Amino acid sequence: MVYAKRPFAGPAQVLEYVGRYTHRVAISNNRLISMDNGKVRFRWKDYRNGNGQKTMILEAREFIRRFMIHVLPDGFHRIRYFGFLGNCHRARKLAQCRELLGMTPVGPSNVDPPADYRDRYEVLTGRSLRRCPHCHTGIMVVIDCIARPTACQPVPDTS
């Protein structure tokens, strides 16, 4: 059951009040364009269509309904501020997660990482880019690289 009554100072005051909290939740103030005749106009990003900015107009009731979906009840916290990735516990909790998963501890090492990409690849994957990919015994030496032609050459008709 919801107790609701008319705002003391009118709808403009309610919009201003709600607007102070929009930057914390689902929509920032700079995306709100206008509220006229019971309709709210705002910008949104269309991720399916090249991240283009579009404008949407909704009835005020529908806008508030969608907005309130993102408001958390008292006592709840956003995930980014809570749990094993919370700032105050992150290092200790990640170390504990790695220990429980049986991973090798991650810490500062005195060994410098390999400088060459082929050495780094071998350290990460266990496979050498220097070995011949066909016989796996010899060492592959690149003698030359053949550049791709800039324009297609016509193929002679041999029929």
The shape is flat
Number of strands: 3
Q: How far do the termini sit from each other?
A: 86 Å
Strand content: 5-15%
- Spatial arrangement of strands, main beta sheet: 1-2-3
Bin the helical content.
Answer: 25-40%
Given the structure, what is the number of helices?
4
Number of structural units classed as domains? 3
Structural class: alpha+beta
> What is the makeup of the main sheet?
3 strands, antiparallel
* Rg, Cα atoms, Å: 30 Å
**Which sequence of SSEs, written as H and E, runs from N to C?**
HEEEHHH
Low-pLDDT runs of 5+ residues are none
Provide mean pLDDT, rounded: 77
Task: Give an account of the 3D structure.
The protein is an alpha+beta fold and 159 residues long. The protein folds into 3 domains: 11-69, no CATH class; 76-107, no CATH class; 109-145, no CATH class. Helices cover 26% and strands 13% of the residues. The chain is built from 4 helices and 3 strands, in the order αβββααα. Strands 1-2-3 form a 3-stranded antiparallel sheet. It is flat.
Offer a concise description of the structure.
The chain has helices at residues 11-22, 60-69, 90-100, 117-125; strands at 32-36, 39-46, 52-59. It is an alpha+beta fold and 159 residues long. β2 (39-46) and β3 form a beta hairpin.
Topology:
Blueprint: H1 11-22, E1 32-36, E2 39-46, E3 52-59, H2 60-69, H3 90-100, H4 117-125
Antiparallel strand pairs: 1-2, 2-3
